[in-house]
From TrEMBL:
InterPro entries in UniProt: Glyas_Bleomycin-R_OHBP_Dase, PhnB-like
Name of the protein: VOC family protein
PhnB-like domain sequence ranges: 7-133
Record Pfam families: 3-dmu-9_3-mt
Amino acid sequence: MGTILNPYISFRDTARPALEFYQSIFGGELDLRPFADFEFAKTDNAEDDNKIMHGHLRAPNGLNLMAADTPASMEWKGGTAISVTLSGDDKDEMTGYWEKLSEGAKIGEELAQAPWGDWFGMLTDQFGVDWMVNIDGAGAPSN
């Protein structure tokens, strides 16, 4: 296996529904490990037991997302200045991702032709994660 760079998203209490939402968009295998599964990770707060200590979505097209809940006893640094970016040239696939990610999202910039010739859009999904979608100009939707 070569080198892989994966986004690892921190949530306060919504890692499970967020990863299940992303699985509904991208497909693939979802591995969810709650804090209760790991003796070393147990906290004094029983409410943390069912929260996700480590979650990993492996989509069949090679997309990977990892996520975890931050226990109540730790500082959560939500809303950090990072975006997950999807780029590709399959207009149907990319537009489908955009439409599904848009459900319950705050649209920052509608998916539209950008000055550089590609189609580009930005949104913050229903879980507070920022996304950028870029469709290569050759495969972009036509007006």
